[in-house]
Structures are given as C-alpha cells and as structure tokens.
Amino acid sequence: MTVDVATERRYWAPALETQSRAEWDALKLSLLRTHLAHAQAGSPYYRASFAAAGIGPDSLKSLDDLRRFPFINKTILRQRQEAVPLLGDIAAVPESEVVYVSASSGSTGVPTLSPFTASDFDAWMDYEARQFWSSGLRPTDRYCHSLNFSLFVGGPCVLGAQKLGALSIHAGTVPSERLLAILKQFQATAIWTTPSYAWYLGETAQKQGIDPARDLAVRRIFVAGEPGGSIPETRARIETLWGASVYDYYGLSDIFGSCAGMCEEKDGLHWAEDHILAEVLDPATGEPVREGERGELVLTTLQKRARPLIRFRTGDIVSFTSEPCRCGRTSQRLLGVHGRLDDMLIVRGVNLFPSDIEAVVRQDGDFTGEYRLVLDRENHLDTVTIEVERRWGCAVPHGDLAARLTRRIKAVTGVGPKVAVLEADVLPRATHKAKRVEDRRGSVWV
Ligand SMILES: [Zn+2]
C-alpha cells in the first residue's frame, strides 16, 4: 500500500476496515478454507491431526464448522518443536522460506519459536502500520520504540511505524535515564512500552526534575503486556502524568507483536480480524460464551503461512464485541484482557482477577495507586489482604480508608478483602511486568 502523507486520511485500508459484518464473515470463511488447505498440504502435524479427526478443509461449510477441529496449545507447540528441530512439524513451509523467527521464553523450558515467511512478515508490518494509524500515529510523528528487540516479537513492530512513515527511533530497553535523554533530545511524540513502565518512567522523570507533560513532547503512549492499558483508571493516571493519550495493544508471541489495538475512540481494541480468527470459549466446557461475556481466547491464524495455528488456546480471559465503533471501523473489538487463566485466583470459590482490584484501587484519589495482593489461609479459610498506600498529605484515618476500600471491592468482586493501608512509597515499584500477587497458601495456587 502506498503511504498517503495527508494527515487528514482517516483509515489505512478504508475498504477493509469499514466493510459490513457480513463481508467480514465472508472474508474470514474464504481465508480460512485456503489456510486449512495450506496447513494440510504443508504441515505434517496438521495432516495427521486432520486425518485422525476425520476432517479436512472441505469440512468447513461455515465459520461454525471450525469447532470440529481440534485445539492446540503451547505445550503441543513446545513438544513438536523439540521432536522436529528447528521449527517443529506444525510449520507448513521449508525452513528456506523462513526469514524471521521470534522466540518466547515462557515460564518453563526451551523458548518456543514463531516463524515468518517474507510475505508473512510484510503482511504483519502492514497490519502494524494500520493499527498505528488507527491510534492516530502519522508520518509527522517521531516514534520511540522502547520494547525489547532481543528475539521478542514486539521488537520488529517498530518497522510498522516506519512503514507508516513516522520517524522511528529504535531505542529498545535502555536504562530509564538514557531513555529519558533520548525522549528529550529527539522530542519524540510517541512511545511504546508497558503500562507499569510508563508509570515508572514518568515518576522517575519527576524525581529528576523533569515534568513529562511539560518538558517532553510525548503525546501518544502505546502500551501492551499487562491488563493496565485497558483499565480506565490506570490509563487515566498515566495520561495525567504524561499529558498524553494511552492506547492499549494486545499481542501474542506465537502470532504477532500486536493482534489488536485501540483506535482514537479508546473503546476496546480493534482486532486484526483478517489475520486472526478469535473464539471466546468457556474454559471448562469449550463451548462459546455469549458476546460480551468473559471466556478463554482461542485463536486461528488466517494468513500466516510459515506456521498456521488452528484453535490455539491462549489461556487469556477476554471479552469481545462486534458492535460498530464510533470511529467507523467495523472489526470486532477486544473489550479487555481480564487476566490469564493462570492468574485467576479462586478465593472461597469466587473467581478473582487482580485487574478488578486494580480498577477499584485506582479510582480512589486517596491512594497512590500502587497495590499488592497477599493471599493466605487462616483456619482453613482463604483470606485476601490488599496492601495499598495512602497518598502523601491525605488526612483520612487509616481505618476509614480501609473500610471504604473493602466495601467497594466487595461490591465489584463479591469478595470482602482485608485492607492494609501503608504510607506512600512503601511498596516496591514495578518496572516492566508487574508482579502484584503474593500467594502464601502453599500449593493452592490456581
Ligand atoms: Zn474504533
């Protein structure tokens, strides 16, 4: 696609981005049939998997028929990669066609690799450019990419900004003093990092006598990697600190650096619907949940030739809408990543997501916004203690603050936690990915 430098241009790919829902479904069905045929022809794993299930590309008469295909997950990716090095037999092209591989560390074992052909990579960068454009990035911007470059799938996304035409600064993860110096020297107007780090970096700047809102030119902050970017209270606090707009992005190392991102309306994340088909399923039954309800995100690639993924269980708990957005784009929107199945805490039988607690804590201006959840067990009963910090200068007594927060959290989550109010700046500050849950219940982590 030719880049139109006119900043008035509203959409990167107007016909695609504003087509009707029926046209989206027809496009997905057509892409999926071709993609399943490619998987069957090129991937020994899928050839065997389809044969064992007695299905094939011809089994797909409608999008609902995808539910007849078996799931795949991270464990299978790892096993097949170890069985058939380098890329595993889920890959559907010879290694000679692969031009880029990202690696995701995961918590256990050898990193899993995600391969791209040259055309996969180009299509990915065109998508990244489209997504950046929808978030308001323009060729006149100076974009500072502050994500890890080392084998991380988020690294190459800087080329999406470059394709869009923005002056792109390949900063990577440098120490915060250095990053602040880069932002100041270049007068960068946009940056991509994690929500925790955006907050940390803003506070670090203030401690150095730099007011991010006044002394720096950053007006757009793209964030990913944690739920915070979709929690309005967290986003609002980062926006105030920086005098900038915060746009949440969602990515998955086994597919793309970002698979969805916020447009300027910031009402959910537009999904890369022509590249990835999303199902939202009840994790226990595998059946689809109703639109808007929370369930596990299960993904099927539609175009990625190097390694098709069919019904990949992400472990992320999400909700979606397909209502049209005020921006005029018609793609499905991810309403939020509410947590990971691994992060979901079950306390006295109630499902509890740390992101729900975060939203309540950050609504209340008498707290700094930092928090930690401590889970414990007393007399065979689970207890939750939320440690929060009272803002400097707040005169409300600790007991009143604690009672207020307990009441609000109970109203939202159904669990009445103990609240321990601490003084400001007591809790450890997170830098990149925040760890805010401490489970002292021994083996009961769920
Ligand atoms: Zn929109």
Q: How would you describe what is shown here?
A:
This protein has two domains: 9-341, Rossmann fold (3-Layer(aba) Sandwich); 345-444, 2-Layer Sandwich (GMP Synthetase, Chain A, domain 3), CATH 3.30.300.30. The chain is built from twelve helices and 19 strands. The chain has helices spanning 14-17, 21-42, 44-53, 74-83, 118-134, 158-164, 176-186, 195-207, 212-215, 232-242, 354-363, 398-413; strands spanning 98-104, 112-117, 142-145, 167-170, 190-193, 220-223, 245-250, 260-262, 269-271, 276-281, 295-301, 312-321, 333-340, 345-347, 350-352, 367-378, 381-390, 418-422, 437-439. An eleven-stranded mixed beta sheet has the order 4-3-5-6-7-8-9-13-12-11-10. The site of zinc ion has 6 residues, from loops. Residues 263, 265, 270, 325, 327, 329 line the site of zinc ion. InterPro entries: AMP-bd_C_sf, AMP-dep_Lig_C, AMP-dep_synth/lig_dom, ANL_N_sf, PA_CoA_ligase. It is an enzyme of class 6 (ligase). Keywords: Ligase.
